[in-house]
User: Which sequence fits this backbone?
């Protein structure tokens, strides 16, 4: 699976992602949240806080037992096992996509510092990775590296200077069994294609014509020089 791929399940504004699945699997293996956090080189306090956040949106995930002959411990709930199954099904659905679509934005490099460049495109400026000096480039975006938001769902920009954001309009929605393909017009010559889960589609109550916002990390792009 491509390194840029990010599967996520959403509920009540909270995203369940790869790192969360790893934490639950570690709890199942270690039978202890503390030991699970240690095995993943994470602090117990952060792991505990993350579990609490997930449970507020997704329901009970970890049952904690105190004392007893074995000294207590933690185990996953049936709900957690169901969540892991859904997440793996989602990952498989993405991986089974014959070819992940890419969007190409042409532009001019107006700033270049180290491996990051600022590229002026018809849709606005884009921060992207650049591997060699060039005046004109094409910025390539994979559909599975783009996150879609509704105007009311956009997270704070604090600490996210390397993330690109564009306002646009959903022009086409292709609903699959687990994944929906959404085409977004952001004012470029070609629209941007992104992939979201059916759960997210329902949560957003998304229809063609709705205003949306897309975002993607600079590190999830690649550029090609144009001669």
Assistant:
């Amino acid at each position: 699976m491509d390194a840029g791929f990010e599967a996520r399940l959403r509920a009540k504004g909270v995203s369940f992602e790869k790192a969360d699945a790893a934490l639950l699997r570690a709890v199942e293996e270690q039978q202890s949240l503390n030991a699970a956090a240690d095995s993943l080189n994470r602090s117990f306090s952060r792991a505990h806080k993350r579990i609490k956040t997930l449970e507020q949106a997704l329901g009970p995930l970890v049952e904690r037992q105190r004392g007893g002959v074995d000294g207590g411990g933690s185990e996953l709930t049936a709900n957690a096992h169901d969540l892991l199954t859904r997440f793996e099904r989602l990952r498989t659905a993405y991986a089974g996509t014959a070819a992940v679509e890419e969007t190409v934005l042409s532009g001019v490099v107006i700033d270049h510092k180290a491996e990051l460049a600022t590229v002026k495109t018809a849709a606005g400026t884009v921060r992207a990775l650049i591997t060699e000096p060039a005046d004109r480039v094409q910025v390539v975006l994979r559909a599975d590296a783009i996150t879609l938001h509704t105007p009311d769902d956009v997270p704070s920009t604090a600490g996210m200077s390397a993330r690109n954001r564009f306002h646009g309009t959903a022009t086409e929605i292709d609903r699959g069994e687990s994944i929906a393909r959404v085409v977004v017009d952001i004012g470029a010559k070609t629209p941007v294609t992104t992939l979201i889960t059916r759960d997210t589609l329902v949560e957003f109550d998304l229809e063609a014509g709705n205003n949306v916002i897309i975002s993607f990390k600079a590190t999830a792009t690649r550029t090609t020089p144009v001669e």
